[in-house]
Structures are given as C-alpha cells and as structure tokens.
C-alpha cells in the first residue's frame, strides 16, 4: 500500500462513527437506513460517512435491481478490504 493510500485509510478510520460503521459492516452487507437504526445515528450522517469510506476504497456498494416495498432501490454497502477492529 502506498503512503498516500495508507494516510487516506488512517484518516477514515480515525473517526469513531466510521469505526462503528466498519464494525457493523464486518458482520455483513447493509444499507444506510438499517445501519442508522442499529447504531442510533441519523441516516444523512451515516450516508455521508459511507460515501467517504467508499471514496477511500474501504467500502463498496451495490444497488438492488428490484424495488423495495417503499418504491425505492436500496444501496447495499459492504467492506471492500479486510478490516478488523477489536
């Protein structure tokens, strides 16, 4: 890993909210609303952090091909790299 990539990853995981999201995603894929409910955080905040984590290459996303009961398509997030927080 290049120094610049390492610096980016360290900046992402230094934030306690993002560490909680990583810990949650280590159990399996999820979407922003589900993560926000499980962690007791606002959905816009979770979405912002997921976007930052995706830009850093720590998280990937997949959009459902079919609509959910509310009419939208969920965007599922999962860890892109092997990350362990104990």
SSE string, helices as H and strands as E? HHEHHEE
Strand order of the largest sheet: 1-3-2
Q: Report the CATH superfamily.
A: Winged helix-like DNA-binding domain superfamily/Winged helix DNA-binding domain
- From the coordinates shown, what is the CATH architecture? Orthogonal Bundle
Mean pLDDT: 88
Identify the CATH class: Mainly Alpha
In short:
This protein is α+β, with helices and mostly antiparallel strands and 86 residues long.
Short key terms for the protein model shown above:
about 90 residues; alpha+beta; Arc Repressor Mutant, subunit A; 3-stranded antiparallel sheet; 4 helices; 3 strands; globular
Explained architecture:
The chain has 86 residues and is of the alpha+beta class. It has a single domain (3-65, 74-79), classed as Winged helix-like DNA-binding domain superfamily/Winged helix DNA-binding domain (Arc Repressor Mutant, subunit A), CATH 1.10.10.10. The protein contains 4 helices and 3 strands, in the order ααβααββ. The protein has helices spanning 3-13, 16-25, 32-39, 43-55, and strands at residues 30-31, 59-63, 75-79. It has a 3-stranded antiparallel β-sheet. Helix 3 (32-39) packs across helix 4 (43-55).
What is the strand and helix layout of this fold?
Elements: H1 3-13, H2 16-25, E1 30-31, H3 32-39, H4 43-55, E2 59-63, E3 75-79
Antiparallel strand pairs: 1-3, 2-3
Helix pairs in contact: 3-4
């Amino acid at each position: 890993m290049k120094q610049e990539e390492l610096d980016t990853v360290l900046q992402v995981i230094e934030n306690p909210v993002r560490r909680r999201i990583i810990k949650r995603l280590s159990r399996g894929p999820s979407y922003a609303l589900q993560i926000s409910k499980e962690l007791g955080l606002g959905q816009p905040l979770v979405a912002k952090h997921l976007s930052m984590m995706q830009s850093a290459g720590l998280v990937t996303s997949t959009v459902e091909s079919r609509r959910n009961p509310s009419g939208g398509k969920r965007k599922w997030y999962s860890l892109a790299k092997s990350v362990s927080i104990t």
